[in-house]
Amino acid sequence: MRKLLNYIVLSLCFGAILSSCITARNLNYMQKPGGGIQEYVDSLSFSDYKLKNGDYLYIRVYSIDENLTEILNGSAVVGNNMQSIRRGESAASDLYTYLIDQQGNIDFPLSGKIRLAGKTVREASREIEKKLVKILSEYSVDIQIVKKYFSVIGEGNSGRFPITKEKLTVFEALAMTGDLGQYSDRGKIQLIREIDGKTVIKSFDLRSIEIINSEFYYIEPNDILYVPTLRQQFFGITSLTGLFSFVLTTYSFGFWVYKLTKTK
Question: 240-262 vs 2-19: helix axis angle to the nearest 10?
Fold first, then answer.
């Protein structure tokens, strides 16, 4: 009876250890759905980003009227600061960027308040052009979003990172952080995003190959990715060799305890 009980206890412990192993299925990307890998319906439709309160805009007006153009652009040297604005390296760049306030407006020279929140960059350009029609004859407006960031928190390399291109994929974003750690739960990544003025939290499986067809594939400004920890981290078994080593060590310790109790 005692041998049977010992066998049952050993089997249960071994099964628990096996279930705690970190395998390639936990870590690899681009896996086919099934067996715990999420399946996504093809819902990818990249749409232009809509401006939000708190966004910073670089606005450049081009016109043959040099005097008015210089006033609207703030300075004749703005063009030389363009690269600094993009990288956020120049403190003076704040003079040439416009913050969309809590009411969704910017205060533009010679035009006053202009509501831009909820509009795409192209729509915002047209909105400013409408305001300038009374003072300029031939002109165009170029707008770029600056100081764009996304954040990663949780297991792995947490931090705040710049968005350096218009369409940044989730894989490119995580590559910028140095990729996820081996104890990161890739199957339960949480995305925190502001949609229509409300904060929304959604979970997705980064291991699925179908992630490229989902709403989670592209990163937007101010997105936050929360990376939870795998429950297998408790045992820290990441390979078959580690499993056998753990079992052998456990067995040796148990056998030593058994022999010690038998001698008493």
Answer: 150
H helix intervals, 28-169: 66-73, 82-87, 121-132
Whether the pLDDT of residue 197 is over 70: the answer is yes
Report yes or no: 73 and 143 within 8 Å, Cβ to Cβ.
no
Q: What is the pLDDT of residues 39-87, one digit of tens each?
A: 777 655 567 888 999 999 999 999 988 888 888 887 544 444 444 444 4
Which of the 8 DSSP states describes residue 31? B
First to last CA, the chain: 22
Report how far residue 99's alpha carbon sits from residue 72's, in angstroms, rounded to the nearest whole number.
Answer: 16
Q: Where are the beta strands (DSSP E) in the chain?
A: 56-63, 97-99, 105-108, 112-115, 139-146, 149-154, 159-162, 168-169, 189-195, 198-204, 218-219, 224-227
- Confidence band of 234 (pLDDT split at 50, 70, 90): very low
**Could you tell me which of 144, 141, 133, 239 has the C-alpha nearest to residue 182?**
239
Sign of CA dihedral 167, 198, 184, 32: negative
Cα atoms in the Cβ-side hemisphere of radius 13 Å centred on 243: 15
Number of H helices, E strands in the chain: 7, 12
105, 128 in Cβ contact below 8 A? no
Nearest to 243 by CA among 37, 80, 20, 35: 20
> What DSSP element (H or E) covers 227?
strand 224-227
Looking at residue 78, its pLDDT comes to 42
- The residues, ordered by sequence, that sit 6+ positions from 20 with a Cβ below 8 Å of its Cβ are 231, 232, 234, 235, 237
